[in-house]
Design goal:
Blueprint (H helix, E strand, L loop, with lengths): L6 E10 L5 E11 L5 E6 L16 E12 L1 E7 L13 H14 L4 H17 L2 E7 L4 H14 L2 E5 L1 E2 L12 H15 L7 E7 L7 H14 L2 E6 L3 H10 L6 H8 L6 E5 L5 H10 L2 E4 L1 H6 L7 H7 L3 E3 L11 H10 L8 H8 L1 H6 L17 E4 L15 H11 L5 E6 L2 E2 L18
Bound molecules: guanine and zinc ion.
């Protein structure tokens, strides 16, 4: 073992194992190699160099004993151009899209707007402890390319793509089908699996009403050919479902649009999935299609709530998404509590909330072999948290696992996040040079 190659992060480590199991190592050490991979995660045995037999050696220790270490948070669904659209009251989804969202997305033809919004967007993700995100940009190829450049510089892990819309969209955002496909394919070739796999491409047909079957079928083929992702929305409101029925009268339900086009599959993530039959959930599970569950957004737009029990009993994998800008918060902790609040009959216990925001999200993005918890060999994506930022009187050492997770879930926000690491590298919140400094504490 060469000197200077392994770093140990010593602190209290809470590591999600499954929806019901969590490991709590009160004096733990997370050992990370120079490639940013996890070598081990276990109790600290007071054995820095020289090493005792049978212990995992490390060359340098970062002392985080008053802090908590958890895996980086995974936001499975949000919209970069909608950052400043948060909190704009709208009557219904389709109304809100027309009045606020489409105009904001149109502004992305100007790269100065993309640069300004994009830099603030990635900074806020880092400040809120999101280390991996599934991101929608706009229909603009240049805007999407620029967003990838910003994600690269920021250091975050991202699955991202250019929105595609070739029907029922306003002038200025409606694309010619072939043009949309060509530009998306070029972006995928340029960005999919770059920066050591940190950046990935997602073909992003917005939702069934704005996409022709012709477009969707080609997306299905492209995703197959390239191994890239597909992300879209499904069954967010009953009104949307009616639109889909009107546009695709021969298809029996919303999910069949994705099946028919070849867009269903393990690397497809569909936002919302609220108004669906048990048979649709069954077919989602059968095809391995995932759900991004966005409870804050569903509250905000009064869309409804995803029936988590039915989704789970069908065996569909799902993770959490802020769905900014219908989601008003950039924090996955907010999403965790709303995942609980929106389930009227079942309860999302704190260990499950942590799972959904980490390993569950990793599974949703087909990244469970790489991120989501501290299994050896995975990438060292982790957060250093200070729970005293919730309230100064809390002492980490005095709290049980459930108390810590409960605090984070119900009262956590960006303030508790001291540092975020991706692949063993600490993210610099000022990596993207923002002209106008966002005041501290303004990042919820
Ligand atoms: N459905 C189609 N587009 C959107 C969007 O931008 N936000 C939400 N919440 N739902 C959508
Ligand atoms: Zn969305």
């Amino acid at each position: 073992m060469k000197k200077g190659k392994l770093t140990g992060y010593r602190g209290r480590i809470i590591n999600p194992i499954s929806p019901t199991e969590v490991e709590d190592i009160r004096d733990g050490i997370l050992v990370v190699d120079i490639a940013g991979k996890i070598v081990s995660c276990g109790p600290y045995k007071g054995d820095g160099p020289p090493f005792k037999k049978g212990t995992v050696p490390f060359d340098k220790v970062v002392d985080l004993r008053r802090h908590l270490i958890i895996p980086g948070l995974v936001d499975c669904h949000l919209h970069l151009p909608q950052l400043d659209c948060r909190g704009k009251h709208g009557a219904t989804l389709l109304d809100w899209l027309k009045h606020y969202i489409f105009p904001a997305e149109m502004a992305f033809r100007d790269l100065r707007v993309v640069d300004d919004v994009g830099k603030r967007f990635f900074k806020k993700l880092v400040l809120n402890g999101t280390t991996t995100a599934g991101i929608y940009v706009t229909v603009h190829e240049k805007a999407t390319d620029h967003a990838f450049k910003l994600a690269k510089a920021c250091g975050i892990r991202a699955v991202m793509g250019k929105v595609m819309m070739d029907q029922n969209a306003p002038e200025g955002l409606k694309e010619e089908t072939r043009w949309s496909l060509k530009q998306s394919e070029m972006l995928s070739e340029k960005w999919h699996c770059t920066s050591g796999g940190r950046l990935r491409y997602a073909f992003t047909p917005r939702f069934a009403p704005t996409c022709s079957m012709d477009l969707l079928k080609e997306v299905g083929k492209l995703a197959q050919k390239t191994g890239a992702y597909v992300q879209s929305h499904i069954a967010e409101t009953a009104e949307e479902n009616e639109e889909v029925k009107r546009i695709y009268p021969k298809l029996p339900d919303a999910f069949s649009v994705f099946e028919e086009s070849g867009c269903a599959g393990p690397k497809t993530i569909l936002g919302h999935a609220i108004y669906m039959s048990d048979d649709e959930y069954r077919r989602m599970a059968e095809t391995g299609t995932k759900i991004a569950h966005c409870p804050t957004s569903n509250f905000f737009l009064k869309s409804g709530w995803m029936p988590a029990e039915r989704v789970e009993s069908a065996g569909v994998t799902y993770g959490l998404g802020t769905d900014v800008g219908a989601g008003t918060s950039m924090s996955l902790f907010t999403e965790m509590r709303h995942a609980d609040y929106t389930q009227l009959r079942a309860s999302v216990v704190p260990a499950k909330a942590l799972y959904l925001g980490t390993l569950g999200g990793a599974k949703t993005l087909s990244m469970e072999d790489e991120i989501g918890n501290f299994a050896p060999g995975k990438c060292a994506d982790f957060l250093v948290l200070d729970i005293r930022q919730v309230d100064y009187h809390y002492r980490l050492s005095e709290l049980t696992t459930d108390e810590v997770l409960s605090l984070l879930m119900y009262r956590g926000d960006g303030r508790v996040v001291l540092d975020a690491y991706v692949g063993g590298k600490k993210l610099d919140v000022d990596a993207l040079k923002i002209d106008r400094r966002v005041p501290h504490g303004f990042h919820f």
